[in-house]
Amino acid sequence: MAPPPPNYEFQEWWNKERLKAHGFLSPSAPHSPLPATAAGYASFDSTAVEIGTPTTPADGGKFRGRSPRQLSWFLLLRLLGSALLLASLPSRLFGLLRTAARRISTLTHRPAPASRLYRLIRGFLVLAILLLVLELIAYFKGWHFNPPSYASSAEALEFIYANWLMIRVTYLAPPVQALANMCIVLFLVQSVDRLVLTIGCFYIRLRGLKPVSLVEYGSAGDLEGANTINVDEYPMVLLQIPMCNEREVYQQSIAAVCIQDWPRERMLVQVLDDSDDVEVQRLINTEVQKWQQKGVHIIYRHRLIRTGYKAGNLKSAMNCDYVKDYEFVAIFDADFQPAPDFLRKTIPHFKGNDDVALVQARWSFVNKDENLLTRLQNINLSFHFEVEQQVNGIFINFFGFNGTAGVWRIKALEESGGWLERTTVEDMDIAVRAHLCGWKFVFLNDVKCLCELPESYEAYKKQQHRWHSGPMQLFRLCFFDILHAKVSLFKKANLIFLFFLLRKLILPFYSFTLFCIILPLSMFLPEAHLPAWVVCYVPGIMSVMSILPAPKSFPFIVPYLLFENTMSVTKFHAMISGLFKFGSSYEWIVTKKLGRSSEADLVAYIQKDPEPIVESSIHRSSSESGLTELNKLDVTKKAGKAKMNRLYRKELALAIILLIASVRSLLSAQGIHFYFLLFQGITFLAVGLDLIGEQVS
């Protein structure tokens, strides 16, 4: 039998669909001719197979149907790709287990002293193991279907199980159920708060609300040829870059601040170096001298006595005599890179608004797609800026200062008491005191400042501990100041109940208690029940709302929900430490940066400004790049402590507890509870083995 004549209808249709998806072909013109470069092939991404398509012969108007053979091959290739993916899962799982085993076997560092929370979790773990053994014995003996009587128990195990039933029904289940009900109420209150904020964000977008400045400042380049613009109309601005041992990122931050599109005679850059590494001090000082030779007004400051951490550094800088000549101060952490027009977009919002103390810009992340950990952080922070900061800024003119990428009116800083060293959240401290003095804040959602997210779980965990212990320190210190402040009752209620209690204390409390303690405990106490909508449906809805500001992260919605519950351990521990003044609450550890964006910025700067530098050399960041331009530089790298992945005991203990509880839930045939406990336990296990975030080989 002769083969059927070639038919290209299906191939032409597939090419058109691909061009529509890539924007080459408008959907409104489906019969437009295909580009010559695009019509000759069709590529199947999932299988990396290309099928050639010769030129379609002219058939007069002869009818041509789609070939079933081509469609069959296409479906077969897709099926093959899926089969290969499934076939690779065992090898990937084996590699993951091998990595975990190697990590456990090579653990050589001495573990830190056990915290109070870890000792409680460890006791809970022992209790869960004993209860699981007892429940398994009861299950195989049939006591679940015919519970033994307390009076007629003959065997010792039967007597023990009968007593356990009596104790759990009479003494344990009622208080656990009461605690669960309280946490459910707190959970619903916090969910309503999140819903209101989300609705407020939608309203802002629908109405197009945003802060509007009354004046505009031209670029510094326009001043050279324009006689009508007076340089004196530009306010004097102080730009501060506090840093401490920031070897990887000091160049990019200094460069980004020095190239601000603002008259040089109207700005001064302060590099506030608290480094205790002599070589890092020399590198930063050399960089400052380089920019001084280029005509930038920049000075290098180093404190011999490093007290008060960042607050002490900023306080020392503000005590300089020349600060009185400046009207505003912009603050940038060492890994932040403001755009050249940052000052031109923020300073105008102060003009005509004498009651505005702070203009805060939004953060944008250069490494948000680096790994799963940075993607999940991007979801959290996108909601924080897009929803929380923007809504509070539009409707009540108050929000927490983010510590960087913001411009303060120096007069407001001075009237509010200046920088204080009493907590590890000096940014929130000054914001609360300024709000109590009657000052207003402006948040600019459309002004973004590039920065870097922590890529390792260790760095992220330490950052979150500081961010959640500091607010509780501050709440203890300023509670009576809020009550006695001469502000409206609404502002007092907002600060106490919403800003501090609901969003800083209640959130980590119910999250940890409900999902890490009560839920696994209820598997051993069936009389204390958590409904399915608390375990699954409401958290799912809240996760969807949280991910709306970052729509490209929707594929990570389930990992986000599980990871947030995992982080509740760290946040709860930090909250308790700050509230009751435990030792770790005042611990300040600089978040480790990797300088992910420094190479590109440095290369661009070298290409744009190739003039030789009189100083010794330019030192790039310590991260390897392999770029030709960077290889031309004289690189000085200091051998630091070797990095390694760690094991986290609290997370590992809770992982075992949740997995044990999932086994117990199988005996009660609780489907949703079982799957939630299983996947939440696996997530705790992955985090405890440090398998999320940066992996050090």
TrEMBL record:
Keywords: Cell wall biogenesis/degradation, Glycosyltransferase, Golgi apparatus, Membrane, Transferase, Transmembrane, Transmembrane helix. It is a multi-pass membrane protein. The chain crosses the membrane at residues 73-97, 117-140, 178-204, 495-524, 647-666. InterPro entries: Glyco_trans_2-like. Residues 329-531 form the Glycosyltransferase 2-like domain. GO terms for molecular function: glycosyltransferase activity. It is found in: Golgi apparatus membrane. Pfam families: Glyco_trans_2_3. Coiled coil: none annotated. GO terms for cellular component: Golgi membrane. GO terms for biological process: cell wall organization; plant organ development; pollen tube development. Belongs to the glycosyltransferase 2 family. Plant cellulose synthase-like C subfamily. Probable beta-1,4-glucan synthase rather involved in the synthesis of the xyloglucan backbone than cellulose. Seems to work simultaneously with xyloglucan 6-xylosyltransferase. Xyloglucan is a noncellulosic polysaccharides of plant cell wall and consists of a glucan backbone substituted by xylose, galactose and fucose. This is Glycosyltransferase 2-like domain-containing protein. It comes from Zingiber officinale.
